Amino acid sequence: xxxxxxxxxxxxxxxxxxxxxxxxxxxxxxxxxxxxxxxxxxxxxxxxxxxxxxxxxxxxxxxxxxxxxxxxxxxxxxxxxxxxxxxxxxxxxxxxxxxxxxxxxxxxxxxxxxxxxxxxxxxxxxxxxxxxxxxxxxxxxxxxxxxxxxxxxxxxxxxxxxxxxxxxxxxxxxxxxxxxxxxxxxxxxxxxxxxxxxxxxxxxxxxxxxxxxxxxxxxxxxxxxxxxxxxxxxxxxxxxxxxxxxxxxxxxxxxxxxxxxxxxxxxxxxxxxxxxxxxxxxxxxxxxxxxxxxxxxxxxxxxxxxxxxxxxxxxxxxxxxxxxxxxxxxxx
Length: 332
Fold this sequence. Notes:
GO terms for molecular function: oxidoreductase activity, acting on paired donors, with incorporation or reduction of molecular oxygen. The protein is of the alpha/beta class. The protein has helices spanning 23-40, 61-70, 89-102, 119-125, 129-134, 136-147, 176-184, 199-209, 233-251, 270-279, 288-302, 316-330, and strands at residues 8-13, 44-47, 76-83, 107-112, 168-172, 188-190, 221-229, 284-286, 306-310.
């Protein structure tokens, strides 16, 4: 049995918008990808909350999850994540309690501590966003209470939500959420798909300090992996130029709508190259054999329980093929 066959595999989607297309197409593609993932045996399909970004259509995360869950049958659907400083814990509990009531045993609630936006946008979302980030542990506790069994002295109830026990994940790119997830006995997802710098430190901190809970008896680690898989290494390298352009545009404050791949990438200056290398430190780019070796190395190094893949490819058919290639690698 290969190392990969003992690891779960999932997809994190941002509903990317192409430079020559629109949001409606991006959302329809997100559903088509979720249906494709379900057929391929992926464990879960998550969407991420981002705001004020023209190339990302997944901002209304709970609404999009409802659309995806309504049009799939068995795959788990959830948030990777909901950025809690932007929201009232009660509203989050009601939204995900509603989803869990409509689609039992299929909804995940991943919670992040960052606003997922610049400060101006964060203020537009929730004016006391800075204080809210500091209140993250208390907000997580409130959501746990609102989704758990009713308590005799509980004055505020989530309806729907109370008693649904929606699985809560803590997400992070630093050590804070690792420590909190360990203390609460919750599953932990590290954002290594864009910020892998503290990955090993966070994993170690989480595992060493983990306290078993009613929902989890041992640590469970999910890691984000940027994925560009194709039938050959050369084709994957070509397709990856769309991802490179998007990251560089993000760093420069430009439009991050998906750009077509190019065989003539401009030469990057040392700072740009270093930033790109840092962002993509966990990336898997190549043909099937190269991808298999890369993912095997990642799982052996980290002992991850699950990998969750992002796939930033310009042509939708290339995205579908990329996830097909990887699903084959995880089969026993």
